[in-house]
Amino acid sequence: MSVEEQFQSIQSQIQEACVKSNRQTKDVNVIAVTKYVSEETTRKALEAGVTHIGENRAESGLEKKKAIGNQGYWHFIGSLQSRKVKQVINEFDYFHSLDRLSLAKEFQKQSGDSQKVQCFVQVNVSGETSKSGLNPEEVISFVEKLEAYPSITIVGLMTMAPFTEDAEKTRPIFKALRELRDEVAALQLPYAPCSELSMGMSNDYRVAVEEGATFIRIGTALVGNETKAD
Ligand SMILES: *Cc1c(COP(=O)(O)O)cnc(C)c1O
């Protein structure tokens, strides 16, 4: 299937999940994760109507963005080393992996005073040791401490669920992230509206949408994986 056909198929799956959960499709944004594909394929995604692009490495992400130009919104979805903040801060619209104060401090240092850095706090809901992110019970106090870094806006929470053949198993993880998001939003901190939920990937996005995802990050199922021989 072409990228365009894949995108249409994903959109109809989203629609189904929205009907099931009484949500509106306009509240679900698809991020095309282009880390495994070329510039050409990334362009095809934009031509097919995708408006959000996700990259997880500073160098390759910047290279791709430079080649493509200022189209769409760019999301940095990988873990970010503090020393790379300077390179990416003005190039990406959203950062999905804020997980430590040292990174917040670097965002503050590298941003102009008036500039807002839109971040998701990454949460390790499943507790797998291989995953990064804060433990759920650390999130509230972490967000409270971010008051010291006025450049940062917390737009929402992000998680990666463990890979499983049975996507239904990820439901409790997505539900827990939504409940935590609601708790943070209820604090009504001016710098943390925290209305968004970045969760769901190729194998589990339908369940994530049913549980309230507002940004789903889809690589393989949308643009494929050009690093794997088929
Ligand atoms: C690679 C990646 C994705 C997309 O994974 P697929 O399974 O190919 O859809 C989503 N989120 C993050 C953080 C990633 O690194």
From TrEMBL:
UniProt entry tagged with the keyword Flavoprotein: no
What positions does the domain Alanine racemase N-terminal occupy? 27-225
What keywords sit in the KW lines?
Pyridoxal phosphate
Where N6-(pyridoxal phosphate)lysine occurs along the chain?
Answer: K35
> Where would one find coiled-coil regions in this protein?
none
Question: Which InterPro entries did the record assign?
Answer: Ala_racemase_N, PLP-binding_barrel, PyrdxlP_homeostasis
Summarizing the function annotation, the protein's role is: Pyridoxal 5'-phosphate (PLP)-binding protein, which is involved in PLP homeostasis.
Regarding protein family, the annotation reads: Belongs to the pyridoxal phosphate-binding protein YggS/PROSC family.
Protein name, UniProt field? Pyridoxal phosphate homeostasis protein
